[in-house]
Structure formats: structure tokens, C-alpha cells
Design a protein that fits this description.
The radius of gyration is 19 Å and the shape is globular. Helix 6 (192-202) crosses helix 7. The protein has helices at residues 13-16, 49-63, 82-89, 144-149, 159-163, 192-202, 218-225, 237-249, 262-266, and strands at 6-9, 25-30, 67-77, 94-102, 119-126, 170-172, 208-211, 229-233. The chain is built from nine helices and eight strands. The chain has two domains: 3-132 and 172-266, 3-Layer(aba) Sandwich (Rossmann fold); 139-167, no CATH class. Helices cover 28% and strands 19% of the residues. It starts with 5 loop residues before the first strand and ends with a helix. It is an alpha/beta fold.
Length: 268
């Protein structure tokens, strides 16, 4: 794959987003800081309350104009902030789904003053009614027992039984444990399986995926693996370097690291 397929920028999203043409992006996958005090090598996750909501509005206002009319946006959030952020996003885009990522956390203690939180909230938004969505690319095959139970004549030849079922809005995907071979040195890395589903369903082949908070490059890998183009921003140089290494392991070649990314982003 040529270098032009991916642009990985060691740059703050707010500084570089102006170089992306409006209405040029098919899909935005955003995994912003949650405001939980995680250590990303800077203070980006230490915002809370009104300051966090102001930050959320700023990146949303910067990102949304980049979407095509057929484009979509997914955003990862915690339950603490998702109601307010979703409410603001609904002033800019149409909400399609609230998705619950069940991290499949085992029962191992936890607080005795509340129920343990074991999920992330994901918002799925679209720029218009005519948003791109390819359900057939992400259908889940029925298991052999289910197919066997549907052997009555009324089920024979039914397309849905052969192609699989539509993923529901609860996605049970195990979080990445430290010993997982997919794991990088990043505190909130998302499983590739989740991002692949978003890319396949919501970005056409050859389309452009934007990640404002790239982290260790999971969205970049998902996009390139499935023949999409990618541009991502990450302020932490160590995470940006990890993203380049991950792409290399998949046999893909990304654009050379850049402090500003001006030349690469200008081509979009």
C-alpha cells in the first residue's frame, strides 16, 4: 500500500484540522480523553465538569464540517459525560444509535457502594439521512445449532439465515489485557475488532477515515487493513510512533512521521 493511503500526524488536532478540506471525510472515529485522569504523558485527561464539556464542543465543532453528507461519526465516552456530549452532538448531527461496549470484565471485587461499571458508551451519528451504511459487511454468522434449529421448510433459502444477523447495540468484546498480543503501551487502547466493525459498516471502500485522537493507531490499522484511507492526529510522540510500528507489522506503509504534517494534510 502506498504512503499516500495514510497520514499519521504527531500534532494536536485543533492545530492541524484546518488542513483537511470540508466535506471530504467519510467516517470519523473519535476516542477523546474521558476526563478520568489517565496518564497519556500530558494533562489531556484531567479536564472535568464544564471544562470537559467545553473541550468536547470544541473538537466536535472542528470535526463535523469535515464530514461528507453521507458521512458518520462514532465517539467513545463514559456514562458520566455521554448525556451532555450526545445532546450537543444532536444539534449538529442525527443520532443513529447508542452502542454499549460491554468490556466483559470478570467479577473481581469492586465498589460496595454502587454497581460496578463495566462498559463504555459509544455514540453513532450521521450527517444526513443518506448516510453510508453497509450492514452486510458486518453481519454475524449464525452458529451450527441455530441453523439446524431452522431447518423447517419456512426457513429454507432465507437470506438472513445464510448471511448472518445484524449486530445489536450491545457489543460484547473483551477488553485488551496487558498480555494480549494486540496490546500496546497505551492505557485505553480499543480492540481492533470494534473499530473494524465501524470502518466496514460506515466507510465505503477507498473512503477516508479521520481519527482526531489517534492514540496507538487502532483506527489506522483497521482502515488500512480494509482498503480505506486514513488521517489521524496524536500529540504524544510515543503513541504516534507505536501507530507507525503497528501499521508496519500489518505490512502497510504509512507516511513518514511529521512534526506538523503540513505537506501531507494539505493533499487531502
Amino acid at each position: 500500500m502506498s504512503d499516500a493511503r495514510a497520514t499519521l500526524l504527531n500534532q494536536d488536532f485543533f492545530q492541524g484540522v484546518g488542513r483537511i478540506r470540508d466535506a471530504s471525510v467519510d467516517l470519523i472515529v473519535a476516542d477523546p480523553p474521558y476526563g478520568l485522569g489517565k496518564d497519556y504523558g500530558n494533562d489531556s485527561d484531567r479536564l472535568s465538569g464544564a471544562a470537559y464539556l467545553d473541550f468536547s464542543r470544541r473538537w466536535i465543532d472542528a470535526a463535523v464540517p469535515k464530514l461528507k453528507a453521507s458521512g458518520s461519526l462514532y465517539v467513545f465516552l463514559t456514562w458520566q459525560n455521554s448525556p451532555e456530549v450526545f445532546s450537543y452532538l444532536k444539534t449538529r448531527l442525527a443520532m443513529v444509535n447508542e452502542i454499549i461496549w460491554d468490556r466483559k470484565v470478570p467479577s473481581m471485587g469492586g465498589s460496595t457502594r454502587k454497581f460496578s461499571s463495566v462498559h463504555d458508551t459509544v455514540g453513532f451519528f450521521a450527517a444526513s439521512r443518506d448516510y453510508y451504511f453497509d450492514i452486510d459487511s458486518v453481519r454475524i454468522p449464525y452458529d451450527a445449532e441455530t441453523k439446524k434449529a431452522r431447518t423447517r421448510s419456512i426457513f429454507v433459502g432465507k437470506k438472513w439465515l445464510e448471511v448472518g444477523y445484524n449486530p445489536k447495540d450491545v457489543w460484547s468484546v473483551t477488553r485488551l489485557h496487558r498480555q494480549d498480543p494486540e496490546r500496546e503501551e497505551h492505557p485505553t487502547q480499543k480492540p481492533l475488532e470494534i473499530i473494524e466493525r465501524m470502518v466496514l459498516a460506515s466507510c465505503p471502500a477507498g473512503g477516508l477515515v479521520l481519527d482526531p485522537f489517534m492514540g496507538s493507531g487502532t483506527t489506522a490499522v483497521a482502515a488500512l487493513k480494509h482498503g480505506r484511507r486514513f488521517i489521524g492526529f496524536e500529540v504524544n510522540p510515543e503513541y504516534c510512533a507505536a501507530a507507525h510500528r503497528r501499521i508496519a507489522r500489518f505490512g502497510k506503509r504509512a507516511a513518514a512521521p511529521s512534526a506538523t504534517g503540513a505537506r501531507a494534510a494539505a493533499a487531502l
